[in-house]
Amino acid sequence: MGFLILTVVVVLLLVKLSHWQWTRGEQKAQHLAQFDTNQAPRSLSGSVQKGQYLAMDGQFRPEFAVWLDNQTHQGQVGYRLFLPFIPSQQPSRWWLVELGWMAAPALRTLPAVPALASRYQLSGFIDTPSKRVVLKKETASHKWPAWVQRIDLQALKAQMPALEAQWLIRAEKLVDVTTPSRDALAQAGVTPVWQPVVMPPVKHYGYALQWALMALAVSIGAGIWWYKTKQREAV
Question: What total number of domains does the chain contain?
Answer without folding.
Answer: 1
